[in-house]
Design goal:
The protein contains six helices and five strands. By secondary structure, it is of the alpha/beta class. It is globular and about 35 Å long.
Length: 136
Amino acid sequence: MPHKPKAIVLDSWSVIAYLGDEVSGEKVAALIADAHENNIPLMMTVVTAGEVWYIITRRTSEVEADKSIAELHELGIEFVDADWRLTREAGRFKAHHRMSFADCFAAALAKQRKAHVVTGDREFKQVEHEVLMIWV
């Protein structure tokens, strides 16, 4: 990453990689640690959190999904509610790109907050011209 981000938005891809101890998850963990060291805000939308929750529930159980969400809270990740302004921007991304709606919320939050999205999800290639990216 050429310069320190103002803020970091985690998408579901990066969170699942982190929680699943995947190779890319190690990079996400390092970015989270660096953000803490440098007082860089970490955030995700409640829509993204919901996506993470249902993915983990499908793979394991609701109890494990609840534990994972609690872990994200403990990491100091801010869960940003989806107000109309954010939802409209996510809808604009969805209207113009072939991306999941949850990914559109992550992109919208990053655009609003002038933050970098941390992801390995190639869907985000479509919005690189509008949203700052950190590829893991």
